[in-house]
Amino acid sequence: MTEYANDVLVSADWVEQHLDEFQSDDSDYRLVEVDVDTEAYEASHAPGAIGFNWETQLQDQTTRDVLTKDDFEDLLGSHGISEDSTVVLYGDNSNWFAAYTYWQFKYYGHDDVKLMDGGRDYWLDNDYPTTDEVPAFAAVDYTASGPRESIRAYREDVENAIERGLPLVDVRSPEEFTGEILAPPGLQETAQRGGHVPGAKNISWAAVTNDDGTFKTYDELQELYGGYGIDGDSTTVAYCRIGERSSVAWFALHELLGYDDAVNYDGSWTEWGNLVGAPIETGSAE
Fold first, then answer.
1. Predicted TM-score (pTM) above 0.90
2. Is residue 277 part of a domain?
């Protein structure tokens, strides 16, 4: 396999080999499972894994925003995670919410964070050890840095991308992209209007992963995005519905390919599709 740009992925085998360290209270290693629904975590998870609920613990409940720096520090410190910890994240849906959490860790300056390739499903499908025991680690002090705004996009950055013709990557399904539906089947509709940001390319988040949820090689990712004229030479904005699927694409672009100007628009369609006067296109981009 071709080397990635950054050392940001660990295999399930690597995690299994370090389970004793992940389970130790006196350890520099912490394993975290991130899901939108923690019932699965409560039933079974990797030994030593801390469980975070993306919706209730990693989002500000009033502002629909990332956690404040203080709340981020409190959450991590209360679970025995310090700024010096090596944190490995994994979760459901091929790491949708784990990738978002990885992005939030980077936003607040935690560099020693990695994803477990393949996520929760890969761990279960390949019969790695599980438990229903919830670890309890001694609280520590956590001091965050940042925020690093260079990896985040806001409304004005999307407007600038439209005006300048910069790459916009819409990672949602074709039906969401065209405006046929507002959300994936079974999920809450969070926008008033359907469609996509003018000029956006519809490159599914799933295109960057294999059938087993692991990431494709550097060469495969470069060929995928290069086919749409995305080569890292200009700012690339990724978005989806609520910012989690686009975090997978951002991870592939920024971390695996090393495109330093790739940014995640976490407001995504929930914000853009509700803005008065924001330009929207419907139908296929072809």
1. yes
2. no
